[in-house]
Specification:
By secondary structure, this protein is an alpha+beta fold. The protein is 24% helix and 35% strand. It has one domain: Hotdog Thioesterase (Thiol Ester Dehydrase, Chain A, Roll). Strand 1 and strand 2 form a beta hairpin. The termini are far apart.
Length: 151
């Protein structure tokens, strides 16, 4: 089976700015501040999000918790979707699958998301998560977002 190819943006610019994304997060997504997510890049159907290392994200056994990695992946796909369709209320996750590949180093985690399909009602994304300074993935995520109909 061939690898999924990223959405071809045809040199399109992101349809949301970092400032608009910050305002949206301040208004509707308080967990962004709680986790400390930092948006490093927004593109058309692409996003890079940083999860700063924090001892509050550690689980028994001394590794970054699965819920923290799922949260950064979900936010990364959301940002990629917003980059492709602009700010839309009620775009929501309908599916998220994560494979934990190895124990991440005790460093910031980087989540790199890209949309591999963008339809009128659904967007499918792919996320690689790796510790800062290490390109080897510690987790791989696929996620589907439902896009509400536009009036």
């Amino acid at each position: 089976m061939a690898d999924a190819q990223p959405l071809k943006p045809a040199n399109r610019q992101a349809l949301i700015t970092a400032a608009d994304l910050d305002a949206l997060a301040d208004r509707d997504a308080p967990f962004v501040e709680i986790f400390g997510f930092r948006t490093e890049r927004i593109g058309f159907g692409e996003a890079t999000i940083r999860l700063p290392y924090n001892e509050n994200h550690i689980r028994p056994g001394g590794t970054i918790s699965g819920p923290a990695m799922m949260a950064v992946a979900d936010w990364a796909v959301y940002v990629a979707v917003m980059g492709a369709i602009g700010p839309v209320d009620l775009a929501v996750t309908t599916n998220l699958n994560i494979n934990f590949l190895r124990k991440p180093a005790e460093r910031d985690l980087i989540a790199e998301a890209r949309l591999i399909k963008l339809g009128r009602r659904l967007a499918v994304g792919d996320v690689s998560i790796h510790p800062e300074g290490d390109e080897e993935m510690c987790a791989h995520v696929t996620a589907t977002y439902s896009i509400p109909p536009r009036d």
